[in-house]
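Researcher: Please generate the 3D structure of the following complex. Treat every line as part of one assembly.
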Amino acid sequence: MKHYSRGELLSASVSQLNTISTEIRREILVTVAQRGGHLSSNLGAVELTVALHRVFEFPKDKLIFDVGHQCYTHKLLSDRTDRFSTLRCEGGISGFPKREESEYDAYDTGHAGTAVSAALGFAKARDLTGGDYEVIALVGDGSFNNGLIYEALNSLHILNTRILIVLNDNGMSISPTVGGVHEELEGLKAGIGDAALFSRFGLEYIGVCNGNDFEELLPALERAKAALKSQCVLLHVVTRKGQGFSFSENAPLETHGYRAAAPRVCAYGEALGEELKELAERDRRIVAVTAAMADNLGLRGFFERFPDRAFDVGICEEHACVLAASLAAAGMKPYYAIYSTFLQRAFDEIVHDICGQDLPVTFCIDHAGVTGEDGETHQGIFDLSYLSLIPNLTIAVPRNIAEFRAMIRMSATYPKPLAIRYPACGSEGECGDVTVGTFEVLARGKAPFAVLAAGERCVTLGERLLARTKAEGRSFTLISARYIKPLDTACLMGLKEQTLVTLEDNVLIGGLGDAVARSVHGKEVRSFGYRDAFIPHGKADALAAEYGLDEDAIFSALGELYARG
Amino acid sequence: MKHYSRGELLSASVSQLNTISTEIRREILVTVAQRGGHLSSNLGAVELTVALHRVFEFPKDKLIFDVGHQCYTHKLLSDRTDRFSTLRCEGGISGFPKREESEYDAYDTGHAGTAVSAALGFAKARDLTGGDYEVIALVGDGSFNNGLIYEALNSLHILNTRILIVLNDNGMSISPTVGGVHEELEGLKAGIGDAALFSRFGLEYIGVCNGNDFEELLPALERAKAALKSQCVLLHVVTRKGQGFSFSENAPLETHGYRAAAPRVCAYGEALGEELKELAERDRRIVAVTAAMADNLGLRGFFERFPDRAFDVGICEEHACVLAASLAAAGMKPYYAIYSTFLQRAFDEIVHDICGQDLPVTFCIDHAGVTGEDGETHQGIFDLSYLSLIPNLTIAVPRNIAEFRAMIRMSATYPKPLAIRYPACGSEGECGDVTVGTFEVLARGKAPFAVLAAGERCVTLGERLLARTKAEGRSFTLISARYIKPLDTACLMGLKEQTLVTLEDNVLIGGLGDAVARSVHGKEVRSFGYRDAFIPHGKADALAAEYGLDEDAIFSALGELYARG
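Model: Done. Output below.
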């Protein structure tokens, strides 16, 4: 589509703004259909973003997104119109705000709740340096559950500055938004509440009932801009997730995230739902806790079958973690299902509340490893490291869905904290027993080295390497290192090979390779995993290869080990 | 003191309850004077805790503390009266709630904001299993700033159960409480507010103006207990921190924590304050951010000198981290000072907001390493590990205060995220240049091994080992590994010694030893640090030795390395 300057937006009539919005909406739909991405959230925020670009002057003024699931219109209205078709491709436009990409992106985001804090930092810096710009935090209502938002709101009195918080309220996070604040917002929308909750924090409240209507939106935004001269302002804008395309309006959850490729069977989540439901039929202590993503984690069936024993607390990873801990302390058997990257938010609570008390909570960690198109903030490449350092925690890395199922079944009677870590998608496969702390020897071979691989991506890689090796008339011992902690030291001790090669879908620092090196003495350890860097957006397999799991490079390294050996 | 049963509390007159409270207060004072501990917070909550023990039936009912700085009266009224004199001694009574210690302690705590989430978990477990008990969360007003509390309050509607939240409001966290919620509470106390903020979340509000007066306290608590039969209740109790002893009432901050031993010069914090103030005189970009602990971190002087450039946002470690990130993104030079253990709360924000954007924030990480009497939740033994795995982060570990000062001065122009990690106390000493990524060779020697030590505790240990070695007519090379990341690979490559011995005041998993092992090939690495366990309360030096830094054991290991040749 054509690039619209601010001057064009300023001189446009409402009717012309609607035409521009339609054009933007089509561009988003066409691009997402091709590249995947966040659809319904972006469709809902088109008019709001167009209005912001008309009323404020970016990049002089600073627009800070929360999460960033609604930044596409912003990208189309700033300096990236011509490149927008590269959305989420390696080297192309990121699906999230990125400072490196454009000066219009003031602050990088990806996880919920950071926008108000970040806006306050920009505003304080402006005040201290005599700067002349406005700061706008654009936050979805799902994030308003997150504790970080409240910490920021609570500090408005202390920080004594001016920011505009635009609350884009579509009633959804990824799942429908839940909780007390949501009820408050619903009350305001229905005209039965008042803005007390927000005025307590020192916010001037302005409401917009139809945030997809420029006639309502523009005057309210001008009013907010004027009020912002002297105080903090909350502009509460009701929008419709998926607006503009009925298939998305009617199925906002299903169209929140959209994959461009042919649908893959992402069966780990499905398997979790099936196994957990079956276990829960027999064991009344089993409960499930999630943070706003029950469907994505495969737990819709569990939530429907056991509504009393399933808790979705909204985008509150820490609260979900403590809730799981205390449910366990009170005798229940909780499963906390979450994406790898989001679990980072609950690190302290994993350490003290769950592992410090040695409570039998099972973490079901989905989307582990390189995940691809969502980029830096969504790769699950740190978990093996930040979990390994925690005492009392057992870490399991199944090599296929069958083994994952077996581990979930095993977990039902496992009396300690347990983390099971798996990718989004995989294959069913087969497995034997899954005794905690044992590796599985997949192949015995003759080589001066053995290969230890953790998880489906790496075991598959190991199998491909073995096939290529066999094609050359050689072999090696291939082991599935299915428990990172505790390691199978008996297996390690028993290996005659002088060099141990480790493969992990995780950063090298603090992961499997380090653990093996710490456990064996007098052997050489060669570790393959991700180098010390943030991994941007792109195709998962290509990124994995580029950042450290390159099949050809590893095959060649194995060749050198043969030559030495 | 004598143990008072619930029967005795129930039959006691108000006058007798006051006598019991006086007795408890004296016991706390005498014990804390001898053992150290949290004084003013405990003194303020005596009547409240006595009243709770009279009105509720513990351990059948569950009392869940937040942080736990006010649990001493609870311990004196439960099954630990006779052992209370062992407070904070190794093997004795913990200063925090501990499930292992007593069935009266329902849930372990130490960090802020967990009590409401934990109470909800216990309540849901009760509902699901048909249990018959009440759940009470006892929370200080300082914790009410913490985002985790809000995540829990926000989920009251979702979880649909009954808990009593007792808000012990003494107007202080460790520092005076600040923020919007605090203003709200002050308004309620002054009779000018209403309880709207809390009723929005589904809480019945009951206020007690003088929570040190049984005549007010007991009927309110009975009312709360009755209301609790059908809903969630917030009992807002105003108490006086330090109540009962004028020296503590008048100096609640200074008597919050009390050290039994002769006051040590904990000069790292002082040095931070001095250096930062001096740098800030010349560089207007320098700002300081803390989470409720400016005084303890040595920053009182900075806050007084630069009130506009110093931000204490309350017990909000995550918000403080994003605020620091965004101040940096907007061109400022932020210093985020915090204790090691509390920084765990901001792990995700360190990863994405600061290091993901490669922003020049300097973390000043105080109380790193084994800290002693506060136990599991306050040891700073994980930071080298959870920080090492983060891309873009430089990690410095000064060996004395002079070097720490030099690193702070270096940081003023350092353009990337930097973590400087130091213990509470230390000696001034001397230092040379502190070029990033360089080790310092402290002594050259002749041995088949070299010793690499990180930080003051370990360098001092290395020096003691060297002195003992020299007394035997031998020597070794001793190196201060003052940057854990990046490592001084040139120095490591240049070492002729075949074995590298590492010493670190941190868990072994993911720390210095692992980093060295990852960097050198063909050499043996022998790592000494803490084994994979939570370290309880006791004397820091004794704990350090017991958990992995035992001088005699290491000396003997070095002897074996000499013998091997």
